[in-house]
Amino acid sequence: MKKSDSAYSFGWFDWVCLWYPPGWLILFNRHWQHYQSDPDGWNWLEYGLFLIPGGFYLALLIRWLRLGCRSPRSAITAPDPHYQQLFRQEILTPIAHHYFRAELHQLENLPDSAPAIVALNHAGMCFPWDFLCLGVLLNQKKGWFVEPVAHPIFFDHPWLVWWLPPGWAQVLGGVRAEKQSFEAAIQTCDRSTVLLYAPESWRGLAKGWRDRYQLATFDPSFIRLSVGAQVPILPVACLGSEYLHPWTLNSRRLARWLKMPLLPVSPLLLVFVLFPSMGVWAMRTRLRYFLQPIERPWINSLNSDKSSRSTTYQQAEQMRSQLEKELDRLRKDND
Known about the structure:
Blueprint: H1 12-19, H2 24-35, H3 44-50, H4 55-66, H5 81-99, E1 103-105, E2 116-120, H6 129-142, E3 145-150, H7 153-156, H8 168-171, E4 175-176, H9 179-187, E5 193-197, H10 202-206, H11 221-229, E6 233-239, E7 249-250, H12 252-257, E8 264-265, H13 269-274, E9 288-291, H14 309-334
Parallel strand pairs: 1-9, 2-5, 2-6, 3-4, 3-5
Antiparallel strand pairs: 6-9, 7-8
C-alpha cells in the first residue's frame, strides 16, 4: 500500500467497464495502480485501445516499446490481507453481487470458526470466478482471510504479466497448487484463514461442456493434509459455474502448443481473438453455493492406516460421489 491511502471509488467509467466485457481487465489494473506503484503497467491510451476490436494488440505493442522492448519486471511479493480486503470490497463485491448474483445456501453447515479447507466443484473453462465469488461471500459472512489454491500459471506464466500486474496472485493470497506450497499453507492456517481448493484440479475445467455435471477424479492430497493437520473440510456444491463459458471443448493440441493447461474452444473464441482483454471476463450467470456438512476425515481413519494412499483415495472418491449426487439433486430441484 504505497501510492494512495484514499478509497477507490467505483465511478461511472468502472460501471461501463463492468458491463462492457473488454473492460474487466481495466478494472483490475486501475484498482492496483490506485494503491500500488506500477511504472511498467498499462496507461490510459492503452486502456482505450482495449475497447476497440484488435486494439489490444496495438496497446501491447505500444507498451512493449514504451518499456524499452522488454517484458514488465517481475516482483517478489507477499500476501497482503489489507489489499485483498480492499480489492474484494471495491472490485469483486460489485461483480459478485451485480453481475454473477452470487448466493450462499444451507448456512447451517457453515462452521463457526476457521481454519478449514473449502472444497468446491470447479467448472467454467475460464477465469476462476466461481472461486473468487465464493471467497467474497465467505469473507462477508465470517470475515475470513480466504487463500485460493491456484494453478502455477496464475503466478509465473510469461503471458500473464502482460495482462495483470506482476505478483498480483501472491498479493491477493493465492497459494500455488503444488505439494510444498499447499502443505505450508495448511500449517500456517489460523482461526481467521480458510483455503479454497478445487479437488478436481484442472481436470474439472478441462472436461468441457458435455461432461459439465460429471465431477472429475478428486486429487486425494487434500484429504491427507486434512488428516495430518486435523483441519476440517467444508464441501461446497456450486450451481451456475458451468455457464461461465458454455458450449466449450478443450483443444489439447493447441493447449500444449501454447504451454497452457487447457485451451477452451467455443463460439466465443472469435470474440476473444478480437478482444484479448476479455481473458478475465465470463458470461453472466447466477452462482449458487450450497454448503455441505463439515467433514473430518481423521475421525473415520484408523490410526495405523490414516495416511495410506488407498484410504485417502477412497475418502476422496466417496466425497466426490456425494458431491456429484448432491449436484444432481440440486439441479432437479432448481429446474
